[in-house]
Design brief:
alpha+beta; four-stranded antiparallel β-sheet; 58% helix; elongated
């Protein structure tokens, strides 16, 4: 959905018939068509020009439609400005070693010729994302929300942990990685043996934990929802009784954890966590199905009751969106 400026100019010509001759006058033929270009002995009408170029510009037309739909509903605010500024800053950091390279990257990967065009594209995508998330959230059923509440919402848990990371770098061989994994597991089991022998959890965390953010606090993670943690950690801490620690190391992508459950609060009422549940369910649905983003945009536009005056454009639009949905499904 690129090349906005080109198509804005072309579509404006077709839409309002602002067709100029050399002297700035509009020439109208008998059938009501306007002349776009006059050549000796021949003419190219605005309709002919429009029919020729519309085939290749359906994506840009969709951009124009979405601008009309979204710009009024989702006014630019500080949150959007910060998001766009962050993205542009990151792109410059990654690709802006020199102006020429940066321009090539913009053209090759984003199909734009300037940072201004890139910013316009990013702002449209930002508003599309907001519209998609809002639409999905608004259409969640009470049954879905209640099930998520029953399956995933617990009273906040307070826990501490001791993390034993697998000390290995990316260049390590498979044998080196295997050895590092075995060493981390062995050390984690040694820590559990010390706990079994009555050693203090907080002191062991300060001595052995590789989690720099918590080790000096005795491994204290504070209160959290289990769903805020990675799955393996979440499952393990839910099953623990208050005051108990895991008797086997819990493996996650971060390494091996020994977890101590310190406290657990009463489960919040559904009405108090409903908005959070809707947000998490929306994110979960989008993550599980890449095509949902495009499917939702189609539904969102349908809800706005767009009227197509050109059947061939409507056909192109449907085919284009079907292709996006199909391609995104194959990437799930």
């Amino acid at each position: 959905m690129k090349n906005n400026k080109l198509f804005l100019a072309l579509s404006s010509l077709a839409a309002i018939s602002l067709v100029l001759t050399g002297c700035g006058k509009k020439v109208e033929l008998k059938d009501g068509e306007n002349t776009a270009v006059s050549i000796k002995g021949a003419k190219i009408t605005s309709n002919q020009y429009y029919d020729e170029i519309k085939e290749d510009n359906i994506a840009t037309l969709i951009d124009m439609i979405d601008h009309k739909l979204l710009d009024k509903t989702y006014k630019t605010d500080d949150e959007e400005d910060k998001s766009i500024e962050s993205q542009l800053s990151q792109m410059k950091k990654n690709y802006g070693s020199d102006e020429e390279t940066y321009k090539k990257v913009l053209q090759q990967y984003f199909g734009v010729s300037s940072e201004e065009e890139l910013e316009e594209m990013l702002r449209l995508e930002y508003k599309r994302n907001k519209a998609v998330k809002e639409y999905i959230s608004d259409n969640l059923t009470d049954k879905e929300i209640k099930k998520y509440y029953e399956d995933n919402i617990y009273g906040e848990i307070k826990a501490s942990h001791i993390l034993i990371s697998v000390d290995v770098d990316d260049k390590a061989t498979d044998d080196e990685k295997k050895e590092a994994e075995e060493n981390a597991l062995k050390k984690a089991k040694e820590v559990i043996k010390k706990l079994d022998d009555g050693k203090d959890f907080a002191k062991l965390a300060k001595e052995y934990s590789t989690d720099e953010a918590t080790k000096e606090k005795g491994g204290d993670l504070g209160y959290f929802q289990p769903s805020d943690m990675v799955d393996e950690f979440s499952s393990a801490v839910r099953e623990l009784k208050k005051g108990k620690y895991t008797t086997e190391p819990v493996k996650t992508k971060f390494g091996y954890h020994i977890i101590l459950k310190v406290d657990e609060k009463e489960k919040a009422e559904l009405k108090d966590v409903k908005s959070d549940i809707k947000e998490k369910l929306t994110a979960q649905k989008l993550q599980e199905d890449n095509s949902l983003y495009y499917q939702t945009l189609v539904k969102y536009r349908e809800k706005q009751k767009i009227t197509w005056k050109d059947d061939s454009l409507k056909k192109q639009y449907n085919e284009y969106m079907d292709k996006l949905i199909k391609n995104s499904k194959s990437s799930n």
